[in-house]
Specification:
By secondary structure, this protein is an alpha/beta fold. About 45% of the residues lie in helices and about 10% in strands. The chain is built from eight helices and six strands, in the order βαααααβαβαβαββ. It has a six-stranded parallel beta sheet with strand order 3-2-1-4-5-6, with helices on both faces. Helix 1 runs antiparallel to helix 4 (about 80-95). The protein is elongated and about 60 Å long. The protein starts with a strand and ends in an 11-residue tail after the last strand. The chain binds magnesium ion. Magnesium ion (MG) binds near residues 9, 11, 12, 13 and 174. The site of magnesium ion has 7 residues, from loops.
Length: about 230
């Protein structure tokens, strides 16, 4: 491997994210438990999110709008406006959450900095991801921050062109096989999967990945012995 750039996914790779979404979803379902059981509200919310994804993209603001839309649907427009107020509050609480770095992240970045160009490649709200990066204290490790509207092959090709490298000089590290691994392998890059214990339904893939430019590790610091 002649790697020049190491790109890190952010949410659930550098710091905790999905548990906050799941906790918010649980509290949102509680707001509507007089109308439908939790799992039905959850299903409706997921359906709404998937419908709106092409319009809103990823992130907390999109999630807030989807909670409001779901509440209207579930209650057949009979809801008390305090439900909307509370859904918006839940979203704002998410935006104010502290950043909880995952184990080993700082040490890994410190030992790779200077040897490689380090990049963050993440989806989500532009403003929220910028804020999280600042709060994380990790910003100084990175040469470039790419906040992407999606992580498809074309999005990675654009990033690689921008970095002025060949695909096989690029390695992506992340917790999502669907977003961080499969598209990167497809364009000729290297990918490392670091699974996180909770995965958003939308990011789940059920097949096993085998590829000579791919490996899966249990902890992020294991990457150091593979470079
Ligand atoms: Mg992630």
């Amino acid at each position: 491997m002649a790697i020049k750039v190491i790109a890190f996914d952010a949410d659930d790779t550098l710091w905790v994210n999905e548990p906050y979404f799941q906790e918010t979803e649980r509290r949102f379902c509680e707001l509507l438990e007089d109308y439908l059981p939790h799992h039905s509200v959850s299903q409706e919310l997921f359906r709404t999110e998937m419908q709106n994804l092409p319009l809103y993209g990823y992130g907390v603001k999109a999630f807030m709008l989807c909670m409001v839309e779901t509440a209207l649907k579930v209650t057949e427009h009979t809801l008390n406006v305090t439900v909307i107020e509370k859904a918006l509050e839940l979203g704002k609480e998410m935006l104010a959450k502290p950043i909880e770095l995952l184990d080993g992240v700082e040490d890994v970045l410190a030992s790779l900095k200077g040897r490689y160009r380090l990049v963050v490649a993440t989806k989500g709200d532009l403003l929220d991801q910028e804020r999280k990066l600042k709060k994380s204290g990790l910003e100084h490790f990175f040469h470039h921050i790419e906040i992407m509207s999606d992580k498809r092959e074309s999005d990675y090709l654009k990033l690689i062109r921008h970095l002025d490298i060949a695909p096989d000089e690029f390695i992506m590290i992340g917790n999502s096989l669907k977003s961080d691994v499969l598209p990167v392998l497809a364009i000729g890059g290297h990918a490392v999967h670091v699974p996180y214990h909770i995965t958003w339904e939308h990011e789940k893939v059920d097949h096993h990945v085998e590829h000579d430019r791919f490996r899966s590790i249990a902890r992020i610091n294991e990457i150091l012995s593979h470079l």
